[in-house]
Amino acid sequence: MHYLVAYNIHLKKFACENCNKKVADIVLSTTSSNHHMSTTAKNQSTFQRIEIIDALRGFALAGIVFCHMLENFVASPLPISVMESMNPSILDQVANGFVSFLFRGKFFALFSFLFGLSFYIQMDNGSKRGTNFSGRFLWRLILLFAIGFIHSMFYRGDILTLYAFLGVFLIPFHKINSKWILGLAAILFLGLGRFIVFYFTNGEGLLMKEELTPESPMIAAYFDVLRHGSITEVFASNAIEGNLSKFEFQFGIFSRGYLTFGFFLLGLYIGRMEFFKNHFTEKKFIKHLWIGALILLGISVVAMIATFAAMGPNVQFKSWTAMLGLTFFDLMNVAMTVLIVAVFVILYQKNKPQKFLQKFIGYGKMALTNYVFQSILGTFIFFGWGLGYLTKIPNTYVFLMSIIVIALQMWLSNIWLKYFQYGPLEWTWRSLTFFKLMPLRRKS
Which pLDDT score, from 0 to 100, does residue 9 have? Predict the structure, then answer.
């Protein structure tokens, strides 16, 4: 019997001396399928690995490191008084602008897209084996929420709890027609969630009355906790206020959560196409993808600039015009994300670029461990309970520090995966999913 597993399962077949059976050496990343593998003598399993997805996940994680490092892991607007210390020179402003344009709002989307793709493969594998994976996936989400909540104590911008929450609503979409899935994703990208929220709130907060702006006293108080507070004070602030402000940002007028779910659906749709499995033969589709993304990018940028320019210098997010401007901003990020995926696939089809991009495979296999670890390391560097360099390092140097963190994590990931099948958190997540200790060490 063949077990079909997720896109990021590593296949390493070797022949047995006394039999013709094949054995698989499995390596799973953060969003890989956690199907229980029966390894009896009568049922040996065959696996297929799509390494481009691991590479893409590692590449997305690298982009997230740049975003988090240059925001000093604050995950909120910064008080105006400290902005100058982070951008004292033109070079610092260029580094910050480069990350803002190419990374912020795009690589979270790329991560979300891959989560939806992983969901499809897990559910589809269950269906092909004659089992319903919904219950197991739901338990998996509960575990992810627990990991994410612990992570959010360090960094209130955590996305794992958001993924766990939204993932519950993704389950029913496994059997819905692809046209409806793509249509709903498009409507979410066009700002459906934002317009509904604004209709009922007129720009006021869902849970918090105080606006999340650099001038807000609440932001100033939070910043003071990060700069001078102990680790327990940071944890206390992030546990309640942090998750409330995250919910406000995700599901209020800025509507990041609705976009995240839209990318979940897009990943599900692309999974049904088996695009990454057949990307070498999908050149016409890839061409349409990057051309369409460029057109959308150009239209959305022009429309966004024109909309906000018409509002004058003091933009207030309390009008339908502002909501339209925010939607054009989101569409710009959507276009950039699609363009990044298309360019990544095109480069991966070429020998020299592929050799470079393959260096992200190990990083992507251990994405959960690396994502949590980089937050712990980053908050230690910047927050007062650690080294206390919050907003004290110019962005040019922080940019270079980001490269060092990425390189270090990639190096450690490759060393770890030489001896172990999973990253530490990946192994914990998988073991708890199936209520058994999964084999961790690699067989020589």
Answer: 34
